[in-house]
Structures are given as structure tokens and as C-alpha cells.
Amino acid sequence: MVSARICFFGNRMYYDHYRPIIKIRNDDMCNSCELIFKNKERVYSGEEIEVYMIFLVEDLVADYLTEGQVFTMYEGLKIVGQGKVTST
User: Fold this and answer.
1) 33 - beta bridge partners?
2) Which tens digits make up the pLDDT trace of 9-34?
3) Would you list the DSSP string of 4-67?
4) I need a labelling partner for 70 at 20 to 30 A (CA). Which of 5, 12, 60, 88 fits?
């Protein structure tokens, strides 16, 4: 399981078990994952929180998820947040 620190953008609330699209590299590689919030049920835009990231097929992204790796979160084409891997 991957741990990360993330910050959401926009003007809304996000709930535990949120499933954004994660873009890890600069090319078109994107994957869906489930975010398990640590010690929170919901967060507001602008808050930074610690999460666990659960990927459907973690083998596809394992080589790219290193400590310190920055990633972007999307809903379709809309950027909803950004994060940084804290441990793998």
C-alpha cells in the first residue's frame, strides 16, 4: 500500500474512499485508485491530508511510485488535486 500527502483543489468537499484518476508520469499514463483518508471522513478543498492509495493493478505503477514522486489527480480532464508519495 502506498502512502501519500495530498491537497485538493476547487471549491467542494471530498469524502473518504474517493476514486480519482492519478497521473504519475508526464506522458499519458493514468490509473484509477482509491484514496483512504487517514483519520478523516471528509476534507475540504485546500486541506492537506495523509492518505493510503490503493490501485486496482498496482503492478502497473509500482516502478513509478517512489518516495517523493509527485502526482496529479483528475476527474475526467479536470485537475482536482496534487500529491506526493510519502512511502511505498
Assistant:
1) 55
2) 989 999 999 999 999 877 677 888 99
3) EEEEE-SSSEEETTB--EEE-SSSS-EEEEEEEESS-SEEETT-EEEEEEEETTGGGTTTT--T
4) 12
